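Dear colleague,

Thank you for sharing your sequence with our group. We've completed the structure prediction you requested, and as agreed, I am returning the results in plain text so they can be pasted directly into your records. Please verify that the sequence below matches your submission; if there's any discrepancy, let me know and we will rerun it promptly.
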Amino acid sequence: MKLYLKNHFIEKSEPLIMGILNITPDADIIDVGGESTRPGAGQLSPEEEIDRVLPIIEKIKEELEVLVSIDTSKADVARLAVEEGGADMVNDISALQFDEHMAATVAELNVPVALMHIKGTPENMQKDPFYVDVIGEINDYFQQRIDFALSHGIKKEKIILDPGIGFGKRLEDNVAIIKNLKRFGEFELPILVGVSRKSFLGRLSGEIVPEKRLAETITANVLAVLNGAAILRVHDVEATVKAMKILRCLSDF
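Please find the predicted structure tokens below.
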């Protein structure tokens, strides 16, 4: 996995582990977000969002030698997080769609950006989502968003793709994405996967408590890596790092 940052790149043979505000040196990246993106979640103002995330980002950069991702769809939040807080990349669930200034901002900041597939918005994305061919439709979406990013000055090597597991997806869609992750490899870009503790895993196993879905999460992440995932967004960083070490010892990924 090679990730191009502002003026340099990092390269690792293992997948990068993106901790969800998990303050631990085990994570390669810590993803900081101030606005909920769960189904039905409402929106914050940019001012509220930056008030939540900026002090956290600054503290992380002061205390740890770790990359920080700002999880936002707002250009103003992304700019302040990078320029004032020191964030290293942008994680945009809307793939540059919710804020007309986001693409130009990311291009100017010259940081990596994760473009996620979403059907609708967090407020309505789980209201009867439907696909004829979920993998084909996500691939078409990725092509459109990559073309849009490139046309606004974002360098291809700065783009990361996220199929958006759980974002406007049915149970069968989430399963299909993990099984067919290799099909997104045609873009020759890193694939970020976020399955950690998600409800579809609970529906498969019967576990209703998200915090108790570690076994389900580890299993799904192992399969995702074997199918081409380069970055894993997780809550349980230590357990995931250990799982990746064992996977590397026992397989040829």
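Summary note from our side: DSSP finds eight helices and ten strands in the chain.

Kind regards,
the structure core
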